[in-house]
Amino acid sequence: MLTTKHAPFIEEARNRHELFITQPYEQYSEENHEAWRRLYARMQPEWSRYANRWFLEGLTALALDPDRVPRLESVNQILRPLTGFRAIAVSGYVPAYLFFDCLRRREFPTTITIRPLDSLDYLPEPDIFHDIAGHVPMHTSREFAEVLVRFGQCAHSAAVIVNGIADQRVRLERLTSIYKALARFFWFTVEFGLMQTGEELKAYGSGLLSSHGELRHSVESRLVQRSSIALDWVIHQSFEIDHYQPLLFYVQSFDHLFSLVDQLERWMRFGRLDSVAPGEPEVSPEDLASFLASDTLVA
Asked: Is residue 135 annotated as part of the catalytic site, yes or no?
């Protein structure tokens, strides 16, 4: 059984301090496959109405089995020739710099557990449905894949900048602020982004595309403020993860999104990310340490 919070294989890997692992496909139980089947079945009509066309084309290209948890090996056989990306199995949370650097190398860290049947609506942590059904169809788009790589390069630049600061206090203060800006940008785009398509808004963010309740809510609810994305707003905007998002931003295209990542890096180099507004996300010592140790990771 590879159920979120009930997976001995994952616990053993963590005890051995193994972050990158293999997917032991034979350990998925029938209950795990049933959870995937229910999640996939109820999302299909929502995707057809609210997902962007690149996501829908990606679903078609990947040909995911609606009744069985996917094999990462099979997903990668289709995905890699399209954009060079591949899904790589991990045992749990990937520290921030390492996660972003995986994107730079066209690798997507993927959780292999799946939520239990009694918690289909919400989990605070990602699972394989969020990662494979929510994220990976977007990775079949060349334009969107280049956005992810560019964002990984931006995080790489952040590591180079902060590791070049001699004063420890200044280095930590600047890194904390830069990380908040990067995390907020990622949240409001890759995770919860909308795109204006003609007269309609469509979702491209994986947090929306993997949520049965929030996908429709994000596009139709009067409780959501939807604004054209502005970088100076996004980097100062905090967010919370345990409820539907009351504020969402939309882009015009993936070229538009790519240009925003370029702008984000320019602002970082000019010091405009050095003192962003306080608030979420919380910055963990583990995330900070991943940037500070990055001289052993970057190339």
From this structure: yes
